[in-house]
Design brief:
With 146 residues, this protein is an alpha+beta fold. It is built from four helices and seven strands, in the order αββββαββααβ. The protein has one domain: Electron Transport, Fmn-binding Protein, Chain A (Pnp Oxidase, Chain A, Roll). Helices cover 28% and strands 29% of the residues. Strands 2-1-5-6-7-4-3 form a seven-stranded antiparallel beta sheet, sandwiched between helices. Strand 5 and strand 6 form a beta hairpin.
């Protein structure tokens, strides 16, 4: 089993620990916003270690939209590189954990999912204006267990 390396950001470590310890009953919103988050467990692209990241909950039926905004920072968050290298993830939505596979979106699929994301978390629109990079959008889809 690969080693779990917690985030270097204390608030992320604390939120992941609280979310998982309470099975999603606590720590399930973004700080003081009251808006729901999910926990994405992925594999580090350089270390091969287990990484966990709280991301905004943007549901699309049984699928989830994952947005690499990093608040409009000039660089992608590390988890974007992880998903590009290792697209199989576990996604925890409160007390339900699903095995999923992500794919990065382009074109009309990206635009549709970007609109869903902005509807769920309006600051995304502002984040895009803060950076010259195109914010990556991924779609996480359940891996059929059959």
């Amino acid at each position: 089993m690969p080693e779990y390396i917690p985030s270097p950001a204390q608030w992320v470590r604390d939120q992941v620990e609280l979310y998982e310890r309470t099975n999603g009953a606590e720590g399930n919103t973004l700080r003081d916003s009251g808006l729901p988050v999910v926990i994405v467990t992925n594999t580090g692209h350089r270390t091969g270690a287990v990484r966990k990241t709280p991301l905004m909950r943007v549901a699309d039926g049984p699928r989830y939209v994952l947005v690499g905004s990093q608040g409009g920072a000039p660089q992608h968050p590390q988890w974007v590189h992880n998903l590009r290298a290792h697209p199989d993830i576990d996604l925890r939505d409160r007390d339900v954990v699903r095995r999923m596979r992500v794919r990065e979106l382009e074109g009309a699929d990206r635009e549709r999912c970007w609109a869903l994301a902005v509807e769920a978390f309006p600051p995304y629109a502002d984040y895009q204006t803060r950076t010259d990079r195109r914010i990556p959008v991924f779609l996480a889809e359940p891996i059929d267990a059959t």
